Amino acid sequence: MPHHLEFFHTPQTRSTGVLALLKELNAEFTVHRIDQKAGEQRKPEYLALNPMGKVPAILHGGALVTEQVAIYLYLADLYPDAALAPRIGDPLRGPYLRWIAFYGSCFEPAVVDRSLKREQAPQGLCPYGDYDTMLSTLTTQLEKGPYLLGEVFSAADVLWGNALGWTTAFGLVPKLPAITQYVERIMGRPTIAAAVASDAAAAR
């Protein structure tokens, strides 16, 4: 790989899933810890890198990648030998992209509205239509197989396993059987479990 990978990370945040993905990919990388309790995410040094002041972010050569779904897509394609992203031409490539995009465009907006007890926008303007339809669309897919792509484990599962883990833990998503079984399956993978445990230890 021509350039070194740098990872900007705060333990026990959304970037924990990216840490787990990097471990699953067996990637070599340098971690730059952003102490959000100290406000480092809003300091000029970090804002010069990511004006949104968010983690995760990665820097690979001259390429800065922010936004969770973009990072998952970029990293999984960057390490093709790990086979965590169906390649272009593979029939599973479309569904893989769909479920990663669904996370950012439907799931998170719905969960934020629900957690804030905020009335959603009119259905025609709401990015997720309505919460119940969003959730049933997801659970129906989870019931079809062990992974989002059926029998094929992918980077999409790292994203969703982590996300559903914390959203069910905080009561933002109901602990339906399809969801809890999926979370246990994904988060129980040795590499992911080790990454999450080390991240929790680092947050202390």
Automatic annotation (TrEMBL):
Pfam families linked to this entry: GST_C, GST_N
Source organism of this protein record: Massilia psychrophila
Domain GST N-terminal: 2-83
Family membership noted in the UniProt record: Belongs to the GST superfamily.
CDD domains for this protein: GST_C_8, GST_N_GTT1_like
Keyword terms, alphabetized: Transferase
Protein name: Glutathione S-transferase
Gene3D superfamilies the record matches: 1.20.1050.10, Glutaredoxin
GO-annotated molecular function: transferase activity
InterPro entries recorded: Glutathione-S-Trfase_C_sf, Glutathione_S-Trfase, Glutathione_S-Trfase_N, GST_C, Thioredoxin-like_sf
Xref: PANTHER family: GLUTATHIONE S-TRANSFERASE FAMILY PROTEIN (PTHR44051:SF21), GLUTATHIONE S-TRANSFERASE-RELATED (PTHR44051)
